[in-house]
Amino acid sequence: MKPSIPRGTRDFGPAQMSKRNFIFDAIRKVYQRYGFQQLETPTMENLSVLTGKYGDEGDQLLFKVLNSGDFAKDLTAEMTNQGYKKMLPAIAEKGLRYDLTVPFARYVVMNRGELQMPFKRYQIQPVWRADRPQKGRYREFYQCDADVVGTDSLICEAEIVLMIHEVFRNLGVNDFTVKINNRKILSGIAEVIGVPGQETALCVAIDKLGKIGQQKVEEELSERGFLADTILKLQPVFSLGKDQNQLLTDLKTWLKDSETGLAGIAELEKVMQYVAHFGLQDPRVQVDITLARGLSYYTGAIFEVKANGVQIGSVAGGGRYDNLTGAFGLPGVSGVGISFGVDRIYDVMDELGVFPDNQTASTKVMITNFDATAEVFGLGVLKKLRDAGINAEIYPEAVKIKKQFEYADRKQIPFVLIIGSEEIETGNLALKNLQTGQQRPLRLEEILAELA
RNA sequence: GACGGCGUAGUUCAGUCGGUUAGAAUGCCAGAUUGUGAUUCUGGAGGUCGUGGGUUCGAUCCCCAUCGCUGUCCCCA
């Protein structure tokens, strides 16, 4: 049997894990500093929680978990004949989580009596999608979400902008753009061009502007049944936005007859004001009215972060949703959140070469193992090293010293503590620095001071 | 769902216009150096050439099928 892992999944070795943890730690630290509390939810959710939340396509991308035991016991011939969609409820009642937002919404509804609102939670866990893997797209990947529910204060949006800046700057990724838009502006545009309520179809096409260009977007809109006259009225979308200062002014003029549109502009301005009040240094925020993002549940602000100079899609995204918990019987709870894509951030940082060195080294000193006597002596020393807070290990077998040194070298352990009969006798232990090659006889107290 | 590329040593890859004994680098093991790594030198192990079938005197190579990996489009964040 040749071992293998399911397609679209990956192993992360020690070297990768230390880099990934560097990213996780940076995000977690910022989340905590902004007052978010951690939540974890089960890997599996009941399918009733998951289905219908991500559209028809989304339902297909859910990993379903076969019922335990005789999963086919409730199957009837009739179901079998009607195809897999009819069989599904009989053989699977659980599925793997598809994102962190829906499980969060479920949690909020289930614990509504207990939660102190506004509730600020962060969640760092893997999600699964039965998608076809491609570059930068996996079947198992991590999301790092932070959401605030129970308030529609635009301070939350502003804080998200701040957190994005902190996270990327802490990671050493300094050239990035935070694109921001508002769903109400998109609704306003739909109203003004005479297709109110059709902004979803509009968004799907407009969202691709940066990717496929104006002409293709117009073609796609045409295919989706938008009239030539309507598309003509849409022209300001393509021409606006070159000058950030002028953009909102022009937009107000264009959307002057749409109450919703003007509300969206006002919200956006307010968020920008808050960001200014925070005194954020060198803000990288850019209003982009073509930013739509796929999710249909966004109702207010929409965010997306791009790392500049790297050919990788967005590295973080989020927005405000007014009624996420409505599907679980709790309407009127507004929320806003952000999600960082660790896997893509990893790729960006790797490409930019901004990971700090020496992330792999975890053991600081290794004690050699010559024989039974030295081993016993070494164990006592080892305990003292560890008690002093020094990451240390002893080579577990009395094999050839050459092998032991090779082990330390490969594991990038910076120091080897050589303890043989001579050292035990004199009490001067030989500490070798593998980077410089230097070796000195030292008392244990001196070693503890040196390595601490 | 549509189309393309690739499956050869642990790993990364050569290779053969179809020819008898399939190579390199690296890694691994051993020795030079039985108390000193990363360098150097020497030797060694390691392959059903993805799987099944076909064509052929002969297939790792050509054909078909199948499985797996990977990429683009669609889709999706």
Structural class: alpha+beta
CATH C-level label of the largest domain: Alpha Beta
> What would CATH call the architecture of the largest domain?
2-Layer Sandwich
- Please give the largest β-sheet: 8 strands, mixed
Separation of the first and last Cα atoms: 47 Å
State the helix count. 19
By oligomeric state, this entry counts as single chain
Strand order of the largest sheet: 1-5-6-11-10-9-7-8
Approximately how much helix is present in the residues? Answer: 40-55%
Into how many domains do the coordinates divide?
A: 2
Q: What form results from the Cα inertia axes?
A: globular
List how many beta strands DSSP finds: 16
The averaged pLDDT comes out at 87
Instruction: Indicate the low-confidence ranges by residue numbers.
Output: none
Tell me the CATH topology of the largest domain: BirA Bifunctional Protein, domain 2
Strand content: 15-25%
Write down the Rg. 28 Å
CATH superfamily label of the largest domain = Bira Bifunctional Protein, Domain 2
Commentary on this structure:
The protein has about 450 residues and is of the alpha+beta class. It folds into 2 domains: about 15-40 and about 100-350, 2-Layer Sandwich (BirA Bifunctional Protein, domain 2); about 365-450, Anticodon-binding domain (Rossmann fold), CATH 3.40.50. It has helices at about 15-35, 45-50, 55-60, 75-80, 85-90, 100-110, 155-170, 185-190, 200-205, 210-225, 230-235, 235-240, 245-255, 260-280, 340-350, 370-385, 400-410, 420-425, 445-450, and strands at about 35-40, 45, 65, 90-95, 120-130, 140-150, 175-180, 285, 300-305, 315-320, 335-340, 365, 390-395, 415-420, 430-435, 440. The strands form 3 sheets. Strands 1-5-6-11-10-9-7-8 form an 8-stranded mixed β-sheet. The protein has a 5-stranded mixed β-sheet with strand order 13-12-14-15-16. A hairpin with a 5-residue loop joins strand 15 and strand 16. The structure holds one RNA strand of 77 nucleotides.
